[in-house]
Automatic annotation (TrEMBL):
Residues 289-521 form the ABC transmembrane type-1 domain. InterPro entries: MetI-like, MetI-like_sf, Phosphate_PstA. The lineage of its organism: Bacteria, Pseudomonadati, Pseudomonadota, Gammaproteobacteria, Vibrionales. It is a multi-pass membrane protein. Signal peptide: none annotated. Its main location: membrane. Coiled coil: none annotated. It is found in: Cell inner membrane; Cell membrane. The chain crosses the membrane at residues 12-35, 285-314, 326-356, 376-394, 426-446, 502-524. Keywords: Cell membrane, Membrane, Transmembrane, Transmembrane helix, Transport. GO terms for cellular component: plasma membrane. The keyword Transmembrane helix applies. One of its GO terms (biological process) is phosphate ion transmembrane transport. This is Phosphate transport system permease protein PstA.
Amino acid sequence: MNRWLKSGAPWIWLTAGAVSLSLIVVLGLLLLIGWKGLGYFWPAPVYQFEIEQNGHQSTVIGEVYERKTVPVKQLTEAGINTTGFDGDPVFRFVIKTGNRDVLGSDFVTILGPHIVSQEPAAGVAVIERLKNGRFYGFPIRLIEDGVEIPLEELEHSLEKANSVRDLISQIEQSDLVELNQQFEQLNAKALQHEAPSQLIGERQLLEQRFVHIEQQLLTLHQQLSRDRLIVREMTGQEITLPLEQILDLWYPNDFTTAGKLGHWLSQLGHFVSDDPREANTEGGVFPAIFGTVFMVLLMSVIVTPLGVMAAVYLHEYAGKSIFTKLIRVAVINLAGVPSIVYGVFGLGFFVYIVGAQIDDLFFADQLPAPTFGTPGILWSALTLAILTLPVVIVSTEEGLARIPTSIRHGSLALGATQAETLWRTVLPMASPAIMTGLILAVARAAGEVAPLMLVGVVKMAPSLPIDGQFPYLHLDRKFMHLGYHIYDVGFQSPNVEAARPLVYATSFLLVTVIVGLNLTAIGIRNHLREKFRSLEQ
């Protein structure tokens, strides 16, 4: 036994068991997040419940959102009449009824003993709206241009409404934005005291174009407002829904398995490609995906050369002095600084000092409105670059230390300078280690939220950092981030219960984005490792 313990085998098995357990826990967590998040987009059946409670009968239509068991004693203590309840505990159903603007809430709680009957609601439709969430009801009439038409034309009418809505969005995000920029340029010229007569003519042309665009938008909105769908909800009340507010409509109880799969893929595609709505509790997360990936790529472009240059100096040029030792201690300590401290530093230095100086030098005509002297994606990338810099430095130094000295000496003996040796031989061979540092930096930076809340991330960004307007790349703009989106939806949402599945879906998407970025970097690293393996040998 003592020989077995001294051999180290128990510690090998203990380590392997700990690693295996950690992997199982991580995979289990990812499966749980994926199941709860991706399952939100699956078309659940809609039931019709006949309820009898305290002698009153009512009808509830909706999806079974949650089912739990509750002890009768707990219900009695809560003041609920439990007379006639058979069995202990009883089921408590949370039914998602939608129709928030009519019923005042998205959910209804029902106790199992109060349910007289439960069956799939025949002919019920689930309607996705721009505002007030989903609507559950029975379509009964379709009115187009003031004339009632058959319900069979509903799909065609919705396609036409979606086309008009897309045209309105294109005009607002393209023509109006361009016109607004031209007005700002005209105001800048006025501040520079250019010829007033020429400016008056230009302003009149811009105002005429604005009136034309405004009239075009008004016509399109009036065209949409004339088309309406009459729907009967579960209380029997008839509700009029303008088609301009309807994004999608489906009959979940009529779906086949293939139809459910197609609808699930469609909803998942909308979640990834659409903009958020209703205080981030509805719609998609495309701006957050774009902001996360773009910020990480920008951070990578900044931190990689800085980290490599610092590592090259420390390993190749700096001697073993007290100053060098202090630098190494500082690098190690920087890796342990809380991320929120970096956020405060970024806000104070990058935004209020560097950004303010840039505004004074290049954007003085737009002051006191700041351009770069306010949080933006550039300052966020720089802040995270400083945060992840120690990781890149340490990883690059380790890669440089693994390169045999004989390779350096051979290069110098052939007449190459030290700089040429570094650039043509040492750094290419150390590139796998550099990529390892970048992988670790990306993994940490993509999930950071606290510093970004101070230096650029916002709940809702009106436009992306990249668009079709000059100069095309707008590093001064604020942006959305998947990590902050999770925090906002999970803790700041006005309707937390309805938005809870989106927290799981966005969390799974964030993990997927990080894994995708890391796999890309790992692929590049493996390619470089194979390329320079012969030289290392």
